[in-house]
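User: I'll paste a sequence; please echo it back and then give the predicted structure.

Assistant: Echoing your sequence first, then the prediction.
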Amino acid sequence: MRTRDVRSVIYLASGFGLIVSIYTYLETVQSSLQKYCTLNSYVSCGAVANSGRTTVLGIQDSYIGIAGFILILVVAAIAERRRKELLWPQLLLLITSLGVAFSLYFLYVELVEIQALCPVCLTAWVFGWVAWFGAFLLVRKVRAKARARALEKTTTGPATEASPSSSSKS
């Protein structure tokens, strides 16, 4: 997969994740939207939204998703602008890793504590996991390119220095 394709995957997953996170927020504001993702008592956005367990440190999980996906998009854009710097893809990997950790926590809360699963939330988490995988691949690709550049400098550097000294000996 080319680096450009990996970046596209990150942008698409984050963009769709943002849209789904916004929809999750709208479900809490307008409860009539919850009926579109309620299949039964277990697969139910309403059961999750009305459980009172959808916050972390008083912050609603949809806000965390919205902020997280916006942050991923911003850092991905900076990483694209500064292609030769490894810091930004690594920061992107860190942010997406935190997002995966949050999603696993929310998955635990839904399955174990609430005993219901919100399909919209699950969709947002999957987009976050895809963004994480894209960030992981991006870090690998940027590292490989940096190693290739460093190797190229070491192989061409001494060869150009050896040529003038060998010609001066003749």
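Residues 15 and 155 are 42 Å apart (CA to CA). The radius of gyration is 23 Å.
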